[in-house]
Design goal:
Blueprint (H helix, E strand, L loop, with lengths): L1 H13 L4 H11 L16 H12 L8 H21 L3
Length: about 90
């Protein structure tokens, strides 16, 4: 799971304007009841992130390519914006 976070840090350093999109994506992927167990941070579980990486790339500990992260964050931000504008959210 750490490799995903390394990729996110790289995206944040190279494209700081994507940080709000990163925070929105992190909130959407947060673990259920994250506030009930340490470290009390709304992040996805390690098992969930490994599963996401395995289904996307075939390897659970994949270092996500910079372009893939950037593209996903832009897409997610655009979709949230469209959903808010449509009144469906």
């Amino acid at each position: 799971m750490g490799s995903v976070y390394v990729g996110l840090v790289k995206v944040a350093m190279r494209r700081p304007w994507l940080i709000p999109a990163m925070l929105a994506a992190a909130w959407a992927f947060r673990a259920n009841r994250w506030y009930r167990q340490p470290p009390f941070i709304p992040i996805p579980s390690g098992a969930y992130m490994r599963w996401r990486m395995e289904t996307a790339y075939g390897e659970g500990n994949m270092v996500v390519p910079f372009r893939d992260l950037e593209r996903y964050l832009r897409w997610g931000s655009d979709m949230r914006r469209r959903m808010k504008g449509s009144g469906k959210w």
